[in-house]
Give the backbone structure.
Amino acid sequence: MSANRRFRRVVRIGPVHVGTYNDGRGREKHTAACTAPRCGFSTDYDSRAAAELAARTHRCRVR
């Protein structure tokens, strides 16, 4: 099954986008994903604060 997520409250912190969505069970989840080429950083969190902290402290290894 594909992941068809509708993100809301999307903010950009540096190259990282943080967005909120509801998972398949109706729970609210938060994602932090880097948009830099060849980076590949993307994680899901239960709290918005954790996702924003990850976005603020993320450092791309690809240069």
